[in-house]
Amino acid sequence: MFPKVTLLSLALAAVVYGQQVGTLTAENHPQLQVQQCTSGGSCTTQSRSITLDSNWRWTHEVSSSTNCYTGNEWDTSICPDPTTCATNCALDGADYSGTYGITTSGNALTLKFVTHGPYSTNIGSRVYLLDSSGSKYQLFNLKNQEFTFDVDMSNLPCGLNGALYFIQMDADGGMARFPTNKAGAKYGTGYCDTQCPQDIKFINGQANVLNWVPSDTDVNAGTGEYGTCCSEMDIWEANSQAAAVTPHVCSGITGQTRCSGTQCGDGDERYDGFCDKDGCDFNSWRMGDQTFLGPGKTVNTNSKFTVVTQFLTSDNTTTGTLHEIRRLYVQNGKVIQNSKTTFPGISAYDSITDNFCNDQKALFGDTNSFESKGGLAAMGSAFEAGMALVMSIWDDHAVNMLWLDSDYPTDAPASQPGISRGPCATTSGQPSVVESQSGDAYVTYSNIKFGPIGSTYAH
Questions:
Q1: What's the confidence (pLDDT) of residue 8?
Q2: Would you indicate the residue range of the signal peptide (predicted)?
Q3: Does 232 participate in catalysis according to the annotation?
Q4: To which H or E segment does residue 384 belong?
Q5: Does pTM surpass 0.85?
């Protein structure tokens, strides 16, 4: 326990500095090895680390262990407004394995779904790869490059999502742009994506307390007045039954941007906001091949396999315009080419191009916000600016993950092209059920490699 004099000085400092770093739990980033490869196929190991997203962290008064946020509600006596709350409250360090079920070993990261810690029960997690400094996110530009990793999702049932993706957030977590943010990337601040999430507790160095509404279904979450938007490249959203690769882009903004009202694209205003929430997804099952990925299928999710994603440019240079995203797999030493679309009236696409996206949207009767927000060229521009690597495990309180692994929307016939996305029942995926029945679920990402096209896997 700190002496009273120290507590007073900390409290005075908080008035000046805003969103603080707590000192009650030590922050020790779990180490994770990744590899950077060259065109000759030679790969160099880099020692990196991961950090937990700030939304999962303990948020308490700077001068005590009193919670600023408990369950899904703010303490309005500590947090009467965004600035005062950021002044009064600190983000603390994390017990990665004990509280959050997050462990690393060499080049492998394992994320447990439900973890019963000493003080709480934790559901899911989201972590970021840090650079060699340990205080900034490692940013990637994957134009004319490929990104490869191994995944074991044999213990991810219907309704769960083991996600690996990139987002265009600030390398320092927003510290330079928002001086009231003193926690930064080291403590997992600055998150954004194309859903412009409004459940983020601190945005732009201020607490998202205005008009905060606790969730009716999630005891740990709520939504505030603001959301946080940026372009997003979903390399991998998957469970043992289904998988999708999906670029999403934003227009009218550059990098992480706070939104409010129509800008966030909520509800009936889904296509009026900054970002393309639907994206242009390639899900093998949804594109007509129900034999390709799953337990015992061509890509057998009962065991580990390698996922390779290639970002091809128009002139095969790192400065060219992104024009194709290709996917292939490696399992048991065998290279497996991606599945092809099988619907009549559409070409047999096996990769994501602007033509694929346009034809897919037309076939499915979907709004083509991907094209209107800039398409693949906009995705390439986001990579040029630098994108941070995110790895997570989560369940879906909005629509039970049916958009990934079942029939969605549920009021349309499954025989209609684009409705069936996986084999899971439309009654599956309810968070209360998966949290109680599949709490021991986990995903393991390992052997992350990146480099020029063809450099990261044996072929």
A1: 31
A2: 1-18
A3: yes
A4: helix 375-385
A5: yes
